[in-house]
């Protein structure tokens, strides 16, 4: 199990634990799951968040 998968599961569990349910709870779990996946992927070296967040510059 990769770190990105563990991050995804941790984010989803935190989202479920913090949400009271309904559509808003689903969205919170989804956002936290994506954040957990991105942080885990960065840690595994699957992708570089610095490049993704940096943008194109002022060229």
* Helix segment tally: 3
Termini separation? 40 Å
User: Could you tell me the mean pLDDT?
Assistant: 76
The percentage of residues in β strands lies in: under 5%
Provide the low-confidence segments as ranges.
Answer: none
Largest sheet: none
Structural class: mainly alpha
Rg, Å, rounded? 14 Å
* Series of secondary-structure elements, N-terminal to C-terminal: HHH
Number of beta-strand segments: 0
The level of helicity is over 70%
What is the approximate shape? flat
Care to describe what's here?
It is a single chain. With 59 residues, this protein is mainly α. Helices cover 76% and strands 0% of the residues. It contains three helices and no strands. The protein is flat, with a radius of gyration of 14 Å. The mean pLDDT is 76.
What tags apply to this protein structure?
flat, 59 residues, mainly alpha
Give the structure's gist in a few sentences:
With 59 residues, the chain is mostly helical. It contains 3 helices and no strands. It is 76% helix and 0% strand.
């Amino acid at each position: 199990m990769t770190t990105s998968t563990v991050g995804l599961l941790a984010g989803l569990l935190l989202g479920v634990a913090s949400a009271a349910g309904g559509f808003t709870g689903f969205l919170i779990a989804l956002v936290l799951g994506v954040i957990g996946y991105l942080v885990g992927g960065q840690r595994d070296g699957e992708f570089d968040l610095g490049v993704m967040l940096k943008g194109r510059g002022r060229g």
